[in-house]
Amino acid sequence: MFKRKRIVIALGGNALGNTLPEQMIAVKSTAHALCDLIEQGHQVVVVHGNGPQVGMINNAMAALSREDESQPNTPLSVCVAMSQAYIGYDLQNALREELRKRGFVRTPVVTVVTQVRVDENDPAFQNPSKPIGHFLTKDEADRQAKAYGHIMKEDSGRGYRRVVASPKPVEIVELDAISSLVDAGKIVITCGGGGIPVTLQGDHLKGASAVIDKDYASCLLAKELGADMLIILTAVEKVAVNFGKENEKWLDDLSLEEAMQYCDEGQFAPGSMLPKVQAAMDFAASDPNRTAMITLLEKAKEGIMGETGTRIHQ
Hints:
Elements: E1 6-11, H1 20-39, E2 43-48, H2 51-67, H3 76-101, E3 109-111, E4 115-118, E5 130-136, H4 138-148, E6 151-154, E7 160-164, E8 169-172, H5 175-183, E9 187-189, E10 196-201, E11 204-207, H6 214-224, E12 229-234, E13 239-241, E14 249-251, E15 253-255, H7 256-264, H8 273-285, E16 291-296, H9 300-304, E17 310-313
Parallel strand pairs: 1-2, 1-12, 2-9, 3-9, 4-10, 12-16, 15-17
Antiparallel strand pairs: 4-8, 5-7, 6-7, 10-11, 13-14, 16-17
Helix pairs in contact: 1-3, 2-3, 6-8, 7-8
GO molecular function: carbamate kinase activity
Organism: Hespellia stercorisuis DSM 15480
Keywords: Arginine metabolism, Kinase, Transferase
């Protein structure tokens, strides 16, 4: 029997493009895939990445401060907030347009600028590892490191990117407001880029120089909202072990025990597939009736129907 679900969907960077023009095109196909689920009656909550976008904003703000000495350097937390707003702007308009094409007269789509609290003592602050911004050549990366003091690392053979701290999310600050909107039947875009990272200083929420992994933030949000499913959309249709080798194997179904074994074997790349699998495991472990799935954006509808994707469950 078909059951409508409350689903938190984590969109990968491939769903948004790398530039403003690319993003405006990309969100149309993204909206089409999301609206397939909404049209089926599922309640959809959207979380998105912001790696290229927040890096672009950060570089633009750094250039402004160099050109105008009266302009202070913009904190990374503020850049995350900017990325949430402008990605949300494009995404909510694309969803609204697609829904209206399908005959939905009321299209209540809203973006919530969301703060996510992290622990100021999280060891991630001592080991920056989260890539942001565009891929650069070695020479470009060296120049950026020298000019801005950024930490640059090679990323999976695709070039060099800036890396920053990626602490684990502890609390979604605007959760009550998000819950109210979701309960009222609104389509909510939230925790963009993993959320604006903040630490609690007395009664003050202080922005942190970090980027929270959107998969971990999506997992926390899904648990707090009582979601039935967490769907992590990425650049592959299924999770694989022995990826890129002769004995490569694509996985349809994973128990928590099997997933943990593969993680311990080092089957999944840190900063790439590993956080996706770990977030999926965390969500599935929270309730025996909850399932996580990892698949392609354009395969989300088929994935929910059990036709593709990798499902992780107890």
